[in-house]
Amino acid sequence: MVNASPVILILGAGPNIGQAVARTFASRGYKVALAARSLNEADSTENQLNIKIDFANSDDVVNAFKKVKKAFGIPSVVVYNGKPWCLRMPLNSY
């Protein structure tokens, strides 16, 4: 179902920054797609799409965009707010 409302996809929609961005854009009429490992897809609503995602799996990221396009259309805004992972200590630890 594609509509005329603008769409935002938030990758890494945690309880702080991600949710605050979602509320701000929703209040301005955006359809909101949230992607995080802690979300329950069954809790999606008419204006909010929840996507369970594992950022370590590139197929999950591709599938998130496909789900958003199918539900709301192509996102006009994409926010990446995923947690960075570092498998080794930084060279310059200050």
Write up what this structure looks like:
The structure is a single chain. With 94 residues, the protein is an alpha/beta fold. It has one domain (7-80). The chain is 26% helix and 21% strand. It contains two helices and four strands; from the N terminus they run βαββαβ. The chain has helices at residues 17-26, 58-71, and strands at residues 7-11, 31-36, 48-52, 77-80. A four-stranded parallel β-sheet has the order 3-2-1-4, sandwiched between helices. Strand 1, helix 1 and strand 2 form a beta-alpha-beta unit. The radius of gyration is 14 Å and the shape is globular.
Helix residue percentage? 25-40%
Order of neighbouring strands in the sheet with most strands: 3-2-1-4
Which spans of ≥5 residues are poorly predicted at pLDDT below 50? none
Domains counted in the coordinates: how many?
1
Through-space gap between termini: 51 Å
Look at the structure and give the mean pLDDT: 89
H/I helix tally = 2
Radius of gyration: 14 Å
Coarse morphology: globular
* SS-based class: alpha/beta
Please give the number of β-strands.
4
The ordered string of helix (H) and strand (E) elements is EHEEHE
- Main sheet properties: 4 strands, parallel
Strand content: 15-25%
